[in-house]
């Protein structure tokens, strides 16, 4: 009998692994709709959809291992990180998905609200929040939309040797800022940015990537706390904010 492994579980969704099959259970079927369509459109390797019976989506396991984990050193080679950068560039060069992404105004409004909450509830020192809010301002500028993954954490990129074998968790995909994907991929692993950009093969504004590191971390903390995760663990979001300040 196959054992059931709980990969992740919280109030919004859960992912189970049974042998070589992942079962994703999501309370919001709109997210699953996006995930299935995005994987079909993406020009890079993605998990194979085995079946879907709402609220469950069954996906075949990818070969290889995650590029790394937030809060832990990555053992992947520079070439693997460069391959991830090349895969991201291929995605960004693809035709736009038919659905919109989040607007600049929506992101700015959410950022203001989260910063107010962090300070009012004394979750973080006010000066740390204020400084990172200032850094984040550089990301709040017009951008040319591209096909973005939207949640390109290193744990979502699988590699075998020096090649990308697939990218998982596409529920946040949509039209967005290319530098956001690059920032999320290197969040907490800033030392790997050069390898990623070598594979990406385009000049980018490093100040904007640093701004997205701050912005993403500020936006994530309340959600992480509410869902049982620890953003203050070594190398995670709070450490990212401290480095920016």
UniProtKB/TrEMBL annotation:
<feature type="domain" description="Aminoglycoside phosphotransferase">
    <location>
        <begin position="40"/>
        <end position="203"/>
    </location>
</feature>
<dbReference type="InterPro" id="IPR011009">
    <property type="entry name" value="Kinase-like_dom_sf"/>
</dbReference>
<dbReference type="Pfam" id="PF01636">
    <property type="entry name" value="APH"/>
</dbReference>
<dbReference type="InterPro" id="IPR002575">
    <property type="entry name" value="Aminoglycoside_PTrfase"/>
</dbReference>
<dbReference type="InterPro" id="IPR051678">
    <property type="entry name" value="AGP_Transferase"/>
</dbReference>
<protein>
    <submittedName>
        <fullName>Phosphotransferase</fullName>
    </submittedName>
</protein>
């Amino acid at each position: 009998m196959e054992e059931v492994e709980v990969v992740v579980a919280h109030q919004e969704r859960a992912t189970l692994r049974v042998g070589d099959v992942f079962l994703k259970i999501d309370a919001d079927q709109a997210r699953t709709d996006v995930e299935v369509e995005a994987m079909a459109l993406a020009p890079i390797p993605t998990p194979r959809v085995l079946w879907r019976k709402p609220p469950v989506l069954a996906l075949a396991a990818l070969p290889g291992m995650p590029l790394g984990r937030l809060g832990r050193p990555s053992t992947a080679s520079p070439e693997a990180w460069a391959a991830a950068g090349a895969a991201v560039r291929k995605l960004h060069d693809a035709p736009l998905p038919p659905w919109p992404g989040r607007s600049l105004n929506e992101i700015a409004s959410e950022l203001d609200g989260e910063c107010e909450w962090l300070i009012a509830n004394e979750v973080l020192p006010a000066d740390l929040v204020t400084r990172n809010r200032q850094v984040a301002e550089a990301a709040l500028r017009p951008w040319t939309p591209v096909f973005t993954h939207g949640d390109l954490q290193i744990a979502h990129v699988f590699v075998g040797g020096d090649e990308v074998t697939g990218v998982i968790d596409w529920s946040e995909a949509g039209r967005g800022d290319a530098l956001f994907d690059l920032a999320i991929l290197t969040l907490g692993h800033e030392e790997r940015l050069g390898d990623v950009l070598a594979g990406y093969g385009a000049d980018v504004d490093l100040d904007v990537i640093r701004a997205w590191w701050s912005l993403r971390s500020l936006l994530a903390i309340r959600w992480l706390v509410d869902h049982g995760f620890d953003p203050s663990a070594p190398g995670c979001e709070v450490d990212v904010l401290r480095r920016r300040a």
